[in-house]
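Incident log, support desk, overnight shift.

02:14 A customer reports that sequence design results differ from what the structure should imply. Their input is reproduced verbatim below. On-call engineer (initials T.W.) acknowledged and began investigating.
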């Protein structure tokens, strides 16, 4: 990778994919608005999910370009698909990333409650009910509603605040007029135009695109931090204050330590101190999965290097010393297995 800053940002392939997404989005949206045919609507939903996964996510992290203006412009992709750049910033960059899987701080940890539970609560205060035993099945019917519920969430827009996890911010409220205007623009071209101009039914006009986009987005995002063996209490003790050192600094220090070769026999050490960002995230697939998911398949790499272009995240995977650390827990599934795997890998690459 080197230390050249330009290699951190989106390369040519990323931009070509972005142009293809933009052209396809405009074409599909035009067809959907003028014909009202559900196939065009489904394709629009797919492109909107693609914008969320592969364009605005990187842009919101400042990973597209060295230029803040370029990152800011493409961050408004969130507004184009029915969300808001600033609400996404609160939910994802401020809430989710530093506090992954910490109930009460990570908005994603409980956003589907009480219908779906991702968190493993203690028995005393658990909101778990009998029907949750079937959530592995009905989740596929529930998750797509993330899209329509987000588009219709005027409370968030009115206050320009995603939720209680992030404190109120007077400056963010100054962005409300633009956020409201872009939301109305979304409703006009995606929901109303197909009904008025294309003859689509009211139900499909209002729901089809956000349901498809919401389904794709949530299916991909949910896998990233909810899997067998994922750490549900990265602060170690429930109720404790958040250990910022453990969440951020230690993970990076250990990564540097491992890459610099100072952890020659340090497998047990690394796994014992448990890097929260690593243990709450998972990585699967390779380059093609990165291409179609916008790098959401490489969450361990993304959470350790959020400003690295998702296009490059797959390059980190084969680097042995980084791989030692990145894959220590989630890939192998259990702590014991990861101890054995890590020790073996540490010896073979020391
Ligand atoms: Zn992210």
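02:41 Re-run completed on a clean worker. Output:
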């Amino acid at each position: 990778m080197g230390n050249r800053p330009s290699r951190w940002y989106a390369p040519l392939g990323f931009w070509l994919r972005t142009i293809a997404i933009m052209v396809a989005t405009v074409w599909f949206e035009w067809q959907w608005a003028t014909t009202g045919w559900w196939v065009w609507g489904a394709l629009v939903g797919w492109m909107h999910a693609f914008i969320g996964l592969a364009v605005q996510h990187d842009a919101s992290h400042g990973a597209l370009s060295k230029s803040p203006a370029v990152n800011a412009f493409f961050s408004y992709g969130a507004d184009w698909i029915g969300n808001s750049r600033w609400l996404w910033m609160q939910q994802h960059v401020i809430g989710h990333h530093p506090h992954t899987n910490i109930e009460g701080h990570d908005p994603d940890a409980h956003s589907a409650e009480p219908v779906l539970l991702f968190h493993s609560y203690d028995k005393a205060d658990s909101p778990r009910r009998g029907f949750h035993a079937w959530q592995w099945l009905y989740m596929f019917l529930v998750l797509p509603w993330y899209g329509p519920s987000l588009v219709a969430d005027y409370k968030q827009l009115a206050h320009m605040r995603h939720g209680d996890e992030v404190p109120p911010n007077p400056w963010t409220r100054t962005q409300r007029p633009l956020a409201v205007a872009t939301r109305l623009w979304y409703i006009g071209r995606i929901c109303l135009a197909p009904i008025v101009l294309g003859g689509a039914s009211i139900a499909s006009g209002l729901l089809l695109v956000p349901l498809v986009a919401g389904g794709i987005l949530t299916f991909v995002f949910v896998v990233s931090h909810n899997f067998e063996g994922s750490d549900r209490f990265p602060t170690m003790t429930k109720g404790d204050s958040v250990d910022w050192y453990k969440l951020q600094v230690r993970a990076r220090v250990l990564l540097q330590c491992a890459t610099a070769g100072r952890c020659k026999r340090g497998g047990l050490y690394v796994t014992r101190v448990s890097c929260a960002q690593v243990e709450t995230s998972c990585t699967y697939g390779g380059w093609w999965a990165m291409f179609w998911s916008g790098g959401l398949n490489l969450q361990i790499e993304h959470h350790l290097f959020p400003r690295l272009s998702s296009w490059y995240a797959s390059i980190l995977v084969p680097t042995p010393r980084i791989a030692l650390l990145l894959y220590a827990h989630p890939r192998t599934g259990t702590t014991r297995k990861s101890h054995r795997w890590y020790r073996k890998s540490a010896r073979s690459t020391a």
